[in-house]
Every structure is written in C-alpha cells, then in structure tokens.
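Thread: Newbie trying to understand structure tokens

Hi all, I'm a second-year student working on a class project, and my supervisor (Dr. K.) asked me to get a predicted structure for one chain before our next meeting. I've only ever worked with sequences, so writing a 3D structure as a token string is new to me. If someone could post the tokens and maybe explain what I'm looking at, I'd be very grateful. Here's the chain:
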Amino acid sequence: MKLALYLPNFRTQITVKELEDLTELAEELDFDSVWTLDRIVVPEASDREALQYSFGMMDGLPNALPVQSTGNWLQGFPLIPWLAAKTSKVRIGMSIIDTPFRAPGVLAAELATIDHLSNGRLNVGVGSGWMPEEFAAASASHIFPKRHKHVRESIEIMQGVWANEHFEYHGEFADFDPCGFGAKPLQQPRPPIFMSGLKDPLRSAKRITKYDLDGWIGIQDSPQRLGEWLTAIDQQFEEIGSPKRSKDLEICSMIWTVITDEEVDQTVNGVASNLLVGTEKQLTDRLKAYKEAGMTMPLIWPPFTDVPTSKTMDDLKRIKNDIMPKVEAV
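---
Reply by user tm_fold:
Sure, no problem. This is what the structure looks like when written as tokens:
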C-alpha cells in the first residue's frame, strides 16, 4: 500500500509555508504522491448552510462547505507546477480537476507542459463538480446539467491531444479543426488518469472501463463501501470483455486523518465517519482493512480545522514509520 498526502490548501487559514513544509516532509518520507484540492469559490450562502446541495451531494453532510467564504484558502491548480518545482520524487496532481471549469483543449495542453516541468511525475484526476453556485462563479452554469458529458469530452480530448500530432474534435463543449497543441506529455503513452467517484459507482466504472483509465479516487469510503465501487468496476470490465480488473488500477480515497491519544468511535455511519481518526492501533487496524478491501493508496487528508500543521507532520511520520510496517506485515 502506497501513501499519498492530500494538501490542506482549502482551509479558512493556510499559508504557503505550511504547504511547503508538508510537501517537503512527504517527499522525505517517500510518499508516492502529493495532491491539491480544486475549489473555485466558497459562496456566502455556505456560511448560512444554504447551498443548493449538501457537500459533494453526499448524504449526511450539511448544505455548506467546511471553510468560511471570507477564508484565505489557496487555489489548487496553480499549486501543481509549484509542486513540480519544489519536489523531485513525489508524483503530483489535483484531486480532482473539475473539468467544466476549464476548456478541454487548453487543459490538455497545460497538463502536458506540467508533465515536462515535473519530469514526468504528473497524475491527472478528473471529475464533474457538484455545486451549482460554483459553476455560476466559473461562468459555467450552462454546463451544470450536462457536466458528466463535459468530463467525457475532456477525457477524449486529453487522450486525443496527447496521442496525435494533429487532433480535431467536434463535440458539444469543444469544436475545432485539426490543430497541434505543442509538446506531448513526457510520460508515455500519457500521464495516468484517475476518475473521481463520490456517489455513483456505476457511472465511475463506465468511465474507467470505456476510456481505459488508470485509477479511481473516492472520498471518505469505508472498506465496505470501497467493495461496492470495486465490484461495479469489475462488472463493467467483464461486460466489455476486458481482461483488466479493479486490481489492475490504483484505488484511492481521500480520508480525514488524525492520530489521537484516546480511542475514537469509528462506527461506520456514512461519509462523516471517523474512518482514519483514532489511536495508532485504530488506524493500523483500519488501514489493514482497507488493504484487504483493495485500496492501494489512501490520500491522507488533514482535517479542515482544529489540527495544526505541526500535529499533521507528526502524524505523517508516525503513519509512515510506525503504522505502515504493521500494515504491510499482514
């Protein structure tokens, strides 16, 4: 099982120095990858828990974001080339890129350049977004009802741009004649593409199998829930006659993580559960269960509040040096 760090760039208060310290430690500890979070805006309505949908459209969460609209969070996409310059070993990416906020051809070209800046260490996570208020702020309200189609077109364009000297595309969200888009990605045949999955296992499974993607990223998934996602993926591979299975993919989930002194109630009760919040033994047992369920890489996610960066850095060291040897011994 690999380890990844999900940078807390989306917090009411965060500094570049904190992100730099966390990233340097992840590289020092030989983490596989470091990921940023994509957020364009926090609507003022969120402060009043008056968003149109609950966080991520997921059951059990409020109609609000866990960050104040007046907060000083940092945008995730500009951090990716910054990470390329700050590191030399860890892979980098954003979990996930909400494609409706970006023009597909421009995104494909920019990601290819970032792959060169990082010397071939880019991971590409893609998803559809979920917050109508954010689509409005990104001038993409018209895409919201068809956002899943936008993801499909974006994947097709990225794969086409990266594989061809000239590429043309005639779809609903992009329509262009043959063009060259500059340098191809350093990684061949392309950077790994991860599909996001928050609610619908079948939709994610269809995207992964249709486009032969490389991984899947969920959020706050229990080992049991993880099994549902992997079953759907395997069924789709079987349906299309592919020899691949979920075991051939990188299987990830973004999970809030804190090591505590006292035991914590880890009863699984939806996405708000304390899945990786608990004592060292509780985290060890949970990571063993994730490994058995098929997870290959948890994205260790510092909580939004109440946990200082110094505490997270201590936790990362304990996870790598004390917990993971016990997990890998299974």
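A couple of things are worth pointing out once you decode it. The mean pLDDT is 96. Residues 124 and 193 are 5 Å apart (CA to CA). Feel free to ask follow-ups in this thread.
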